[in-house]
From TrEMBL:
HAMAP family membership: LpxD
Catalytic reactions on record: a UDP-3-O-[(3R)-3-hydroxyacyl]-alpha-D-glucosamine + a (3R)-hydroxyacyl-[ACP] = a UDP-2-N,3-O-bis[(3R)-3-hydroxyacyl]-alpha-D-glucosamine + holo-[ACP] + H(+)
Organism whose genome encodes this protein: Paeniroseomonas aquatica
Positions of the catalytic residues: 251
This protein's name: UDP-3-O-acylglucosamine N-acyltransferase
Residue ranges occupied by any UDP-3-O-[3-hydroxymyristoyl] glucosamine N-acyltransferase non-repeat region domain in the UniProt entry: 35-101
Length: 354
């Protein structure tokens, strides 16, 4: 089905010319033709725009009733009669920009809800929206156009750049954030890191956590994800990085630009990630390590040593991908019953690496 108007306000209709420009592509059709929204290939109608970025969905393309489809040049000939091909070099990215034309991020509604609590010396930039029961602590500074949804909390002294959005029940303390930062519901930024000193009689005394969290421009932190503040120095999340839901970032971690940390992944204290590192779901990284720029960590991997730049690792303990699959292939051969071929259900050696 198309987007539900109860939840997603539409900025349509949009002209074909504007859609093609947004997608970074070209379209052979009436540039003034209007479209009202976006929808999947299977559900789209003549007034909808859809997309194709995977050949396995070619049957759905051939059967679609969509008015226009964003796709790669190599697939343009497969578009059925009556559907306009918006040919773009990066169809998925192009469609994301088309969808944003129809459904842009909500703009702030300037003002302060009467139930919000804002410290007398807090500074609110022009056009901020402070929602019900939101809290802005003493000395905090919010840039222009920030949105605080219900029950969001900005701690004392925190600084937010312009156009930040804090969704319901998110909180940020001991932090400085750049522009365009988004905290999804329940995200926690700047809480005390997990640091303590054991005593001779078996107790634990908390090590004061005296650092901050620095969030670069356009960082997004998923629902119920946590970023601990530094213990002595700072925890740093580089510009453009994305943290998925339920991610844990320990104290003094530093990430470079554009890192992707997927759900349930965790990074222990004082580990450094270079630029554009990717951690798949449930991956774990031990503390005080260095993960080089462009490295990719597979799902459920357990990283216990440094990973060089542009290296793919998987497994626990994590190995380079080719070594891991060679080892799995050997284990399957060792474990196969006599007379039965090793490998997957069809007898093929799934683990063989080039």
């Amino acid at each position: 089905m198309a987007t539900d108007p109860r939840f997603f306000a539409s900025a349509g209709p949009q002209r074909l010319a504007d859609l093609a420009a947004a997608a970074g592509g070209q379209a052979a059709g009436d540039p003034e033709r209007r479209f009202t929204g976006v929808a999947p290939l299977q559900a789209a109608g003549p007034d909808d725009v859809s997309f194709l970025d995977n050949r396995k969905y070619l049957p759905a393309l051939k059967a679609t009733r969509a008015g226009a489809v964003v796709l790669a040049p190599a697939m343009a000939a497969q578009v059925p009669p009556g559907t306009i091909a918006i040919v773009a070099p990066a169809p998925y990215l192009g469609f994301a920009r088309v969808a944003t034309l129809f459904h842009p991020a909500p703009r702030p509604v300037p003002g302060r809800h009467p139930t919000a609590v804002v410290a007398d010396d807090a500074v609110l930039g022009e056009g901020c929206e402070i929602g019900p029961y939101a809290v802005v602590g003493a000395g905090a500074r919010l840039g222009r156009g920030c949105i605080l949804h219900p029950h969001a909390v900005v701690g004392p002294g925190v600084e937010l750049g312009e156009d930040c959005r804090l969704h319901a029940h998110s909180s940020i303390s001991h932090a400085v954030a750049g522009r365009g930062v988004v905290l999804h519901p329940g995200a926690r930024i700047g809480q005390e890191g997990f640091g303590f000193a054991p005593t001779a009689d078996g107790r634990f005394e908390t090590m004061p956590q005296l650092g901050r969290v620095l969030l670069g421009d356009n960082v997004e932190v998923g629902a119920n994800a946590c970023v601990d503040r530094g213990s002595q120095g700072d925890t740093v999340i580089g510009p453009g990085s994305r943290l998925d839901n339920l991610v844990q970032i320990g104290h003094n971690v530093t990430t470079g630009r554009g890192c992707i940390i997927v759900a349930l992944a965790g990074i222990s204290g004082s580990t450094t990630l270079g630029d554009y590192v990717q951690l798949a779901a449930q991956a774990g990284i031990a503390g005080h390590l260095e993960i080089g720029s462009g490295a990719r960590i597979g799902g459920q991997a357990g990283v216990m040593e440094n990973v060089p730049a542009k290296t793919d690792v998987i497994g626990s303990p994590a190995w380079p991908v080719r070594e891991f699959w060679r080892a799995i292939a050997r284990l399957r051969k060792l474990g196969a019953p006599p007379g039965k071929p090793a490998g997957g259900p069809d007898g093929k050696d799934e683990g063989k690496a080039g």
